[in-house]
Design the sequence.
């Protein structure tokens, strides 16, 4: 009994002390947030939540490990505001090797209290682009639109203000906006765009040790070397939203939604494809709103689907299918006009494969469903109407009839003798109304 009591006490002490030991071990940790991919609402939400969580943990500093081709202006500004107003020191680290902080990523890096890059990384190419400018390239260069000038001037002023706050050289920052200049890690350090180059997180903390930074609470001296590192990953919802902001994922969700909804319409009662299609379509629309979709591209894809359906129902001899393929290709290529600027545009291989799969889907799957809907019902209660059988007994006016190998209670308007061929004209409950089959009809 004493041993059991001792064991219970030991377990209780372990449960009470262990969390405190872990907490003591992680006193004032360095919290790491990791962004890889386009900057969108999910990334902005993740940074905001991560900074709040770091404050709750009484973190020494927050490191944002960044690898991005750019993203949405609104989400980038939300992240910059969070960093500029953070009471905790924020270090943006462009890593791992081969990563980049392009476009929106350059603004986020410059906004940090300290910024660093891993060897083999680059930063810059932050010129804003207005989608949908008309005219040739030469005309655009000679007569740039007023709207484009406003957007560029606004971006220049914004990066100037960030540089002034962080003590960077505004002329250097201006070049990555106006001239779309991109700098290697060494070039960025030489031009004082970043503070230092670090090979890994531990090297980053070692080099940051003792540096003074100015937060909204005043000047603080960093003491990070040897502090525990705690990675705060994206939540499931944030990860899902972040994944959907990739054009390829949004495009596939859109196609899956179309396939599911049309399959359900062509074969009523399947239910499951319709449910999956509806969910995928809603998710695709959410992602498209984030990606600034070209609705002209969506219209072309919808037009292509109408062409495919029309060619199934009408004798178009394939002309409508050819038109549908052309419209689908053009619509897919125009769907995300800004994606190529961030290096995540839809590949022609994906577009070609999706076009071929869609054409075959409509030709065989949807076509079979539509043709089945047009056929006369030959089974079940409705399939009895018009069926021919024989009277098994005399009908005076009721009796037994044999229809499709089954015996039914029959009723006729006139007396029919046994063996008379009959045709079903009406079904009433379990009684079939029949008439005699006349010769010549």
Sequence:
């Amino acid at each position: 009994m004493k041993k059991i009591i001792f064991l219970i006490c030991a377990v209780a002490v372990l449960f009470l002390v262990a969390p405190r030991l872990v907490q003591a071990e992680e006193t004032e940790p360095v919290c790491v947030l990791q962004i890889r991919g386009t900057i969108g609402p999910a990334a902005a939400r993740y940074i905001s939540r991560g900074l709040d969580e770091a404050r709750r943990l009484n973190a020494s500093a927050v490191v944002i490990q960044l690898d991005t081709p750019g993203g949405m202006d609104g989400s980038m500004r939300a992240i910059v505001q969070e960093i500029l107003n953070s009471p905790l020191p924020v270090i943006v680290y462009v890593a791992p090797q081969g990563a980049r902080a392009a476009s929106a990523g350059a603004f986020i890096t410059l906004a940090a209290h300290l910024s660093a890059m891993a060897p083999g990384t680059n930063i810059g190419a932050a010129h804003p682009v207005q989608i949908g400018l008309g005219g040739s390239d030469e005309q655009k260069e000679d007569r740039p639109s007023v709207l484009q000038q406003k957007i560029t001037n606004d971006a220049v002023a914004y990066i100037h203000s960030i540089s002034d706050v962080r003590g960077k050289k505004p002329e250097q920052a201006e070049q990555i906006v106006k001239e779309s200049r991109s700098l290697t890690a060494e070039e960025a350090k030489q031009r004082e765009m970043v503070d230092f180059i670090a090979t890994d997180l531990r090297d980053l903390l070692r080099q940051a040790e003792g540096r003074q930074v100015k937060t909204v609470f005043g000047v603080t001296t960093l003491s990070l070397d040897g502090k525990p590192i705690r990675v705060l990953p994206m939540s499931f919802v944030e990860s899902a939203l972040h994944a959907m902001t990739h054009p390829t994922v949004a495009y596939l969700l859109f196609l899956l939604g179309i396939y599911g909804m049309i399959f359900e319409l062509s074969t009523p009662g399947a239910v499951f494809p319709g449910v999956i299609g509806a969910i995928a379509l809603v998710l695709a629309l959410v992602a498209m709103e984030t990606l600034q979709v070209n609705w002209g591209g969506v219209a072309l894809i919808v037009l292509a689907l109408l062409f495919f359906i029309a060619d199934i129902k009408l004798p178009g001899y394939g002309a409508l299918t050819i038109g549908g393929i052309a419209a689908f290709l053009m619509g897919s290529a125009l769907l995300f006009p800004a994606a190529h600027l961030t290096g995540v545009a839809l590949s022609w291989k994906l577009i070609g494969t999706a076009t071929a799969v869609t054409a075959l889907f409509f030709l065989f799957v949807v076509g079979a469903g539509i043709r089945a809907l047009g056929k006369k019902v030959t089974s079940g209660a409705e399939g009895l109407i018009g069926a021919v059988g024989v009277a098994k007994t005399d009908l005076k006016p009721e009796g037994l009839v044999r229809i499709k190998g089954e015996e039914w209670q029959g009723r006729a308007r006139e007396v029919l003798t046994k063996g008379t061929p009959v045709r079903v004209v009406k079904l009433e409950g379990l009684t079939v109304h029949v008439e005699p089959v006349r010769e010549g009809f």
